[in-house]
């Protein structure tokens, strides 16, 4: 009996221990679950509970403005409305569906079905509704219909800086351009309006709506000058129309700071009416080709060959270059653009004449290693680092594959591709004393709520590429191109302007040259003795016989510089006399006679072609010609 009781007691004790352990485990699990619900899921469950008893409507944050350097508004926002329906709060579905459909121009039956069969507590009917329409609906006091103030991006100038500013989607999120790049500054933080409701979503009697106000986005100020931008925009539109070109574009940069002052291109579109129904066209027209696309720079690249030759001491002012119209390199004949040749030239004469033979000699004398080190130093083959999406690095033949014939061609701007932005930044470095500045669009950013400036962009010198002495020499040489050489159409009477023309043939599939298609360009800087403005003008595929950069692009750069000088109140060094003459009849005469007569009359002119007879003039005979400003072309056959 004693043994039995002992065994039984032991069994009971084991069962108690097991029950105790089970109880402890159970309470531990329950306590853990409770802790998880309270500490981990607490906020989410509170939110779910609130959603059953509150209905919230978003309050859109005003997107920050984009301003030019003078404070002119380039992009802001206007108030629009979003329209919502809470089906369970609708007392007259027929009326609600009819009134909303008529006002918002949407399908009535579809809206009625959505209101009648909706299992959700809230339906978004329309967004970005104009104020006039929304206020008319508000005054109807339709049960179950609610409104919130939203914003829509507005561009006061429409088609102005289109490819720079970019656009937003319906949610006010930047899609491209600066709207996308600086979306984190511009977007702000949305707020909400909370209203107590019953479990069905019907607003409670005497309910008090609570508001969480939105935080406005920051305003950003650009380096863009709207006045200079307007000059550039007028220039590209005029060139595009005059030459019936595929496109035209212009970029202007501050040579001292790297700040972009203007960026214009055409064809384009109004940012207030984005062509979203044609994605291909939208992608084509919204791409900032001055930053994203490359082109063969042609003779404008000769600037850097010259600078590197001077920097490395392979040439002096007294070096003579013969030109018979071609060079033989690696057994191949490479022509100069003037097939008759330029004869014997000094360096500055070769630059003015844009003689290909001079630059082939310079590039070969510099050598592949030093030449590539130099052009990479100028930024070719790499991105500039500009605050913009989609920048291209350009195209360079890998250095270890470069032969003498490749080097000779690169020396005069062929067999290399660069972006217009790279060209402008590199020319700025050439003439500003030798410092390669990082290009940028933004100047500063201010809080949209307080107006306190929290960001300011400082000029950033990436590296020195040439010496101060070489830079001075380059300014003098390139000023001579405008005052006495092929770039004289970019000249502004009374001011010193420097620059270089460029005319490059285009290539088709398989690398073959496409006959009759050219890229005409001019890159200039002013004032030449103290450069501030660096400008590139590109006209892609101009039609007709006027396709040289000196005739197509250079005049527009001169016009823009002239207007900038007037804007800044800059006075020239000489009095400009606006004397006019009558264009003589030269068609059929010898070239020698035509050139002599125009020279005797004091008319500024340009020749095109190398024949002995004049076959046409622009303007035509008997036209009134301003000696100083009119573009006069003598066409030789």
Shape: elongated
Total of helices: 21
Radius of gyration: 35 Å
Beta-strand percentage range: 15-25%
Sheet with most strands: 7 strands, mixed
Report the end-to-end length measured between terminal Cα atoms.
138 Å
Number of strands: 26
Mean pLDDT: 87
Percent in helix: 25-40%
Task: Give the helix/strand class.
Answer: alpha+beta
Please mark out the parts with pLDDT under 50 across 5 or more consecutive residues, or reply none.
none
What do you see in this structure?
- The chain is of the alpha+beta class.
- The chain contains 21 helices and 26 strands.
- The chain is elongated.
- It starts with a helix and ends with a strand.
Structure summary:
With 637 residues, the protein is α+β, with helices and mostly antiparallel strands.
